[in-house]
């Protein structure tokens, strides 16, 4: 938090290894602690005579879902989050306003060349994307297909509508892009001194449907290095965050 009781103006994205033995709720709680989001549960209060008594601790990290399936914290309505997982990673994003996040591993069938995979993705774009999106993807199929796919997934999580009939009716293709500054891998220490791997990379930013999209790519081996080599296989991932304001800073943390 920027100060006590205030939600940080930054969007925090926390990347966990999918097979780390934690439950989703444990990961959310740990990410919120490291990022300084949320409130602590109160377990003490004053009794009728003024003495200190223990009250049952409320589970402030309890997760509920809307009718459309969007997760939220009933005990912390001021805190918003979104969840995604693909390949070796499980990802969550926190913000003080609605947010959507999606991560997708770049995959192709075992017998496909990259050209054959690109041809298949182009056909999928023609089938599932808005015509403007499909046209934009064709200029650089293998990279842009995942950029649009994760943007659309993050958008429906941001709105809470989920994937439906409108998935291909809106265009999230960027008319123009704003590239973020090149960052570097480093190590961030939390308040209790614990070291957290932190990676800021060049971002691709654009606006569509009156919302902003922040798209970043990372290699599995980079995340593995940040996590002390626990993920040895190399693959590329695209991660996209959707939020309302362009001024939001997006920080990505790889969690041990």
Textual characterization of the structure:
- With 256 residues, the protein is α+β, with helices and mostly antiparallel strands.
- The chain has helices at residues 24-35, 114-128, 131-137, 141-159, 220-226; strands at 11-17, 44-46, 52-54, 64-65, 71-72, 80-86, 89-95, 99-105, 178-179, 185-189, 195-199, 204-208, 211-219, 236-243, 250-254.
- The strands form four sheets. Strands 6-7-1-15-11-10 form a six-stranded mixed beta sheet, covered by helices on one side. Strands 8-14-13-12-9 form a five-stranded antiparallel beta sheet. A two-stranded antiparallel sheet has the order 2-3.
- A hairpin with a 5-residue loop joins strand 4 and strand 5 (71-72).
- The longest helix is centred in the middle third of the chain and has 19 residues, at 141-159.
- The model is unreliable at 1-6, 43-56, 181-200 and 228-232 (pLDDT under 50).
């Amino acid at each position: 938090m920027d100060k006590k009781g205030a939600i940080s103006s930054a969007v925090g994205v926390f990347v966990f290894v999918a097979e780390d033995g934690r439950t989703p709720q444990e990961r959310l709680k740990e990410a919120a602690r490291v990022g300084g989001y949320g409130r602590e549960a109160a377990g003490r209060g004053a009794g009728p005579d003024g003495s200190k008594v223990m009250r049952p601790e409320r589970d402030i990290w309890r997760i509920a879902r809307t009718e459309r399936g969007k997760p939220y914290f009933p005990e912390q309505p001021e805190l918003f989050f979104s969840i995604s997982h693909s390949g070796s990673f499980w990802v969550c994003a926190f913000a003080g306003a609605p947010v959507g996040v999606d991560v997708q591993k770049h995959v192709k069938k075992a017998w496909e060349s990259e050209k054959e995979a690109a041809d298949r993705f182009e056909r999928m774009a023609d089938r599932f994307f808005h015509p403007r999106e499909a046209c934009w993807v064709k200029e650089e199929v293998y990279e842009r297909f995942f950029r649009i796919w994760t943007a659309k997934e993050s958008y429906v999580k941001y709105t809470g509508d989920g994937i439906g009939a409108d998935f291909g009716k809106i265009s999230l293709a960027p008319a123009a892009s704003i590239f973020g500054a090149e960052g570097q891998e480093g190590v961030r220490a939390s308040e209790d001194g614990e070291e957290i791997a932190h990676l800021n990379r060049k971002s691709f930013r654009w606006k569509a449907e009156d919302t902003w999209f922040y798209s970043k790519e990372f290699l599995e081996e980079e995340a593995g290095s940040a996590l002390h080599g626990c993920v040895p296989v190399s693959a590329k991932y695209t991660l996209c965050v959707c939020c309302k304001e362009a001024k939001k800073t997006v920080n990505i943390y790889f969690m041990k």
